[in-house]
Amino acid sequence: MRRIDRIVILTGAGISAESGLGTFRDEGGLWAQHRIEDVATPEAFARNPDCVHRFYNARRTQAAQAEPNPAHIALARLQSNFPGEVVLVTQNVDGLHEKAGAQPIHMHGQLSRALCASCDHRWDAPPEMHVGETCPACHAGSARPDIVWFGEMPYHMEQIVAALQTCDMFAAIGTSGQVYPAAGFVEEARMAGAETVELNLRDSDMSHAFQKHIVGPASKTVPLWVNRLLA
Ligand code: APR
What we know:
By secondary structure, the protein is α/β, with parallel strands linked by helices.
């Protein structure tokens, strides 16, 4: 068995499901309630910024009230106590990894941050954002949620790919494997010769690419998985 010096973990909405935050593609999920093209594209924001702000204001409020569950807490424990490096990449924007004490890489942005569409300045978002919100740096009325929308480039990709190319283990937790580039991370890790494991309630679109599968709710499976890694 290869020594494990670096673990890369990718989390998706499923890890926050048991904290009460909806996922996107499960039964009744966010994309069943809202059309992506109405709330999660730059065109949507240009066409109807009020609708987009209202969508993210509701999610920002809900995320602020949510608590990390045992899965988030276990990953923070792994990151603190594992003798090697644990690179925690998240597609989630809810801030629950930080609340649990972990340091995630936010590849899809964060609900708690705002971005100026004119000068790229970033700052802590207020609880509610509204049309015409001004940028504290350039004062243009072009503030938007600091969320990576469909059609935009995810953040920190160079750092993420470098970690994938040198990791000994890759784990995907609570993600459907339907959105790239995150869905392709497992192939990158396999090419690096890493062990690959998927922790999910059910099969995902990328299950075929993983060597190991741990099926069940993250709040149960992740703490047990972390205990084994720290044993
Ligand atoms: N424990 C473990 N896995 C779970 C749980 C749970 N309690 N509940 C749901 N899941 C799994 C589902 O089986 C599914 O595979 O979580 C996954 C959720 O999939 P999605 O809703 O598609 O969420 P995600 O994969 O994070 O979406 C990726 O798509 O819409 C964009 O930017 C958005 O970051 C998001 C990206």
